[in-house]
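Whiteboard transcription, Tuesday session. T.W. wrote the C-alpha cells on the left side:
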C-alpha cells in the first residue's frame, strides 16, 4: 500500500493528485449594503444582507509543469480558472449588489500620504462614492474602475480591480513537495513555495514557516491526536486543523478535522499568533479575536480575513455591523481525511473578506466616520464534495 501512496507516475496517489477526483467549487455570498448613505453620514451602523450562493467550479484543471526531482520531490504549478455554475447558484452572474467600493475604501492605505489630499479631487472627477452597485461577476473577478482611471499612473499602475482580480489564466505556485518515496511520513509535505522554503509576509521566522501540505492530501497513517498542518496562499500563512470526530463518508471511515478558534485567536489567548498581529489600532494592541490582517501580502490593500459572519470575532468588531448571524456548523472550516492513505475526501474552506477604512479629515467621504471600521465584503466556501466514484477509489 505504501507504494501506491507515493506521488509518482503510475500510483493511485499520483492520479488523484494531478486532478481532484471530485469537482471543487467556490461558493460566494456577497454582503449587500442596505443603508450606504447612513453609513457615510455615520448616523447608523451598516445593515448587511447576504446574497448567494453564486457558485463557480475551480481547481478542475490538471497540475502543470510537473517535474520529478532527484531528491524525491515533485515540482508543479496549479492553474487557476473559475467558471460559473448557474444550476448551483441563486441567480445569474449579472445580478447586481451594492457593496463597499474597493478602490475608494482602500485608497488611504495604498496612496502615498503625500498625495492623500488629492483623493477628494479624484473621487469627484470620477463621480465615485464609498459604496457602489456592481454585478457579481465584476465584484469577484474585476472591472475597470473610474476612480482608479482618474488617478495618475505615478501612483497606481492598474485601473482594474476586483476581490479576486487577477484570477483566471493565472497560476498558484510553483510548489515543490516531497513525493514520499524515501520517507513516507513526508508525503505531500511542501518543501518550497514560489522558490522559497519560507514566506516573506511576516516579521518573524515562526509566522513565515510553510508547514504541512496544500490540504489536498496528507502523509498516510494520520494520527488523530496530532493537528493537521496545511499552507493556504489565500490566507498568506500556514494553518492547522484539530481532530473532532470519526465519521462515515460514503461507506469509508474518515477523521473529521476542524479549524479551531485558536487559529485566529488573540496572542493573549494563543501566544503563537503574536507575530501575526501587525497593527495596533483595529486589534486594540493585539487583543482582537478572530481577524487576520493580510495587507502585507496584498500590496498594502487593507484586507482582513475572518471566518464567515465574524464567527469567533471579538464583540467590539462584530457589533459594528448589523445583519450577521455566525453559526459554527455553517461557517467553520473542516477537512475529512481517510486516515490510512491521508487522502482528503471532503473539505470546506470558509473565509470572509473584510476591508478596513478609517476616519480622515482629508477625504470628505471618510470625514464623518467615528472610528475605524472593518467592513465585510463577502464570504466564500471552497468545497470538495465527495462523490460515489471518488469514495470507492
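and on the right, the sequence the group agreed on:
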Amino acid at each position: 500500500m505504501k507504494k501506491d501512496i507515493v506521488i509518482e507516475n503510475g500510483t493511485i496517489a499520483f492520479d488523484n493528485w494531478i486532478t481532484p477526483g471530485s469537482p471543487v467549487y467556490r461558493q460566494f455570498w456577497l454582503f449587500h449594503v442596505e443603508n450606504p448613505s447612513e453609513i457615510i453620514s455615520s448616523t447608523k451602523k451598516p445593515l448587511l444582507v447576504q446574497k448567494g450562493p453564486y457558485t463557480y467550479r475551480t481547481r478542475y484543471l490538471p497540475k502543470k509543469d510537473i517535474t520529478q526531482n532527484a531528491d524525491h520531490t515533485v515540482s508543479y504549478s496549479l492553474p487557476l480558472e473559475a467558471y460559473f455554475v448557474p444550476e448551483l447558484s441563486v441567480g445569474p452572474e449579472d445580478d447586481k449588489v451594492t457593496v463597499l467600493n474597493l478602490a475608494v475604501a482602500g485608497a488611504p492605505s495604498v496612496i502615498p500620504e503625500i498625495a492623500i489630499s488629492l483623493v477628494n479631487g479624484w473621487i469627484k472627477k470620477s463621480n465615485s462614492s464609498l459604496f457602489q452597485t456592481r454585478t457579481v461577476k465584476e465584484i469577484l473577478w474585476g472591472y475597470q474602475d473610474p476612480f482608479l482611471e482618474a488617478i495618475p499612473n505615478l501612483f497606481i499602475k492598474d485601473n482594474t480591480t476586483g476581490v479576486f482580480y487577477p484570477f483566471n489564466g493565472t497560476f498558484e505556485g510553483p510548489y515543490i513537495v516531497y513525493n514520499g518515496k524515501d520517507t513516507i511520513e513526508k508525503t505531500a509535505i511542501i518543501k518550497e513555495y514560489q522558490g522559497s522554503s519560507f514566506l516573506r509576509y511576516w516579521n518573524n521566522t515562526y509566522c513565515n514557516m510553510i508547514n504541512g501540505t496544500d490540504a489536498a492530501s496528507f502523509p498516510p497513517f494520520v494520527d488523530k491526536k496530532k493537528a493537521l498542518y496545511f499552507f493556504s496562499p489565500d490566507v498568506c500563512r500556514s494553518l492547522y486543523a484539530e481532530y473532532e470526530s470519526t465519521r462515515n463518508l460514503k461507506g469509508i471511515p474518515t477523521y473529521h478535522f476542524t479549524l479551531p478558534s485558536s487559529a485566529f485567536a488573540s496572542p493573549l489567548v494563543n501566544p503563537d499568533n503574536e507575530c501575526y498581529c501587525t497593527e495596533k489600532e483595529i486589534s486594540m494592541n493585539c487583543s482582537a479575536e478572530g481577524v487576520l490582517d493580510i495587507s502585507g501580502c496584498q500590496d498594502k490593500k487593507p484586507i482582513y480575513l475572518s471566518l464567515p459572519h465574524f464567527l469567533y470575532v471579538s464583540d467590539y468588531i462584530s457589533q459594528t455591523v448589523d445583519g450577521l448571524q455566525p453559526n459554527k456548523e455553517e461557517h467553520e472550516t473542516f477537512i475529512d481525511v481517510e486516515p490510512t492513505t491521508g487522502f482528503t475526501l471532503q473539505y470546506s474552506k470558509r473565509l470572509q473578506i473584510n476591508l478596513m477604512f478609517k476616519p480622515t479629515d482629508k477625504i470628505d467621504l471618510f470625514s464623518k466616520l467615528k472610528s475605524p471600521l472593518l467592513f465585510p465584503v463577502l464570504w466564500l466556501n471552497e468545497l470538495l464534495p465527495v462523490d460515489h466514484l471518488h469514495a470507492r477509489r
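Someone added at the bottom: Residues 244 and 257 are 5 Å apart (CA to CA).
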